[in-house]
Amino acid sequence: MSVDAPTPKGGMYRADSDDTRHSKEDALNDREFELLVEGTHRLDGDYFELESRLVIFLAGRLGMRAGEIAHLTEDWIDWHRGMIVIPRHESCTDGRDGGICGHCRGAAEQMVEHNPGLGIDEAERMMWSPKTEAAAREIPLEASTRARIVLERYFDRFDEFEASRGVVNRRVTRAAEAADVEVDPDSTYPHALRATCASHWAAKQIDIVSLKSMMGWASYQTAENYLAESGKRTEKAIRRL
Questions:
Q1: 168 exposed, middle or buried (CB, 10 Å; 0-12, 13-18, 19+)?
Q2: What is the C-alpha radius of gyration for the chain, rounded to an integer number of angstroms?
Q3: How far is 50 from 46, CA to CA, in rounded Å?
Q4: For FRET with 8, which of 123, 130, 144, 238 sits at 20 to 30 Å CA-CA?
Q5: Backbone angles phi, psi at 118, to 5 degrees
Q6: CA–CA separation, 83 vs 66, rounded Å?
Q7: What is the pLDDT of residue 18?
Q8: Is 25 exposed, middle or buried (0-12, 13-18, 19+ CB in 10 A)?
Q9: Does any domain span residue 204?
Q10: What is the DSSP track for 143-162?
């Protein structure tokens, strides 16, 4: 059965080009990203510091979505090959008593609403799954040595990322609030960090195929948009020089 996947806030997922157009405006530059990371060191408690840094590096340097981060387990990580492998399906057990989490339950309910004939039990069994087929992908850890180190530190202590989708959002907000005033908490959120990742690698001249693959986009157009924007910024910098 082919079903439509709802967004966390209701309705249907937009095309990648629409989904990233607004968050791209909130992407952090390299200085702002470092200030955000610095903000995690000001949080109370070693665990909150580590968890917040993990979220920030996974989203801001490896391009993971908030839902992917919330369902991350060490089974997704191939340490030998240096890859995070986002699966096509992973049974959600992040809720109470090993059931599905509230985010997945809400997504299943919306899926049933938009797909007549689909039962809630079947929809819940489909949780968790990535946003699109392209989102099931491999992310190279060599893209960011710092991200790999944070992952190693976290999984030295824990078997899975135990925070909900809402906690993922709050970790980013708290770090932004603790960071320098150059970082605006109102415009710093997980999807903006994904845009930060895409902008960062586009500026480093990554090729379009690699950028699309790393970010898990369904269309090359989104990657083209980031690469074109990076080219415009480079051209302006050369003109200033």
A1: buried
A2: 18
A3: 6
A4: 144
A5: -90, 125
A6: 18
A7: 42
A8: exposed
A9: yes
A10: G-HHHHHHHHHHHTT-SB--
* pLDDT-derived band at 235, boundaries 50, 70, 90: low
Considering the chain, what is the average pLDDT of its residues? 88
- The answer to whether the CB of 71 falls within 8 A of the CB of 92 is yes
Give 7's DSSP letter: P
> Residue 192: what residue type?
A
CATH number, domain of 180, equals 1.10.443.10
Domain containing 75 equals 26-90+129-240
Q: Is residue 109 part of a domain?
A: no
Q: CA-CA distance, 191 to 165, in Å (whole number)?
A: 12
Residue 10 has pLDDT above 60, yes or no: no
Task: Please state the pTM of the whole predicted model.
Answer: 0.86
Q: In this structure, is residue 223 part of a structural domain?
A: yes
Are the beta carbons of 35 and 182 closer than 8 angstroms? yes
Axis-axis angle for helices 208-215, 220-240 (nearest 10):
120
CB 64 within 8 A of CB 115: no
Q: Domain for residue 32, yes or no?
A: yes
For the chain, the domain total comes to: 1
Q: Any residues with CB less than 8 A from the CB of 30 and at least 6 apart, and which?
A: 200
pLDDT in tens, 119-173: 999 999 999 999 889 999 999 999 999 999 999 999 999 988 888 899 999 999 9
Extract the tokens encoding 210. 């690699």
Q: 130 in helix, strand or coil?
A: coil
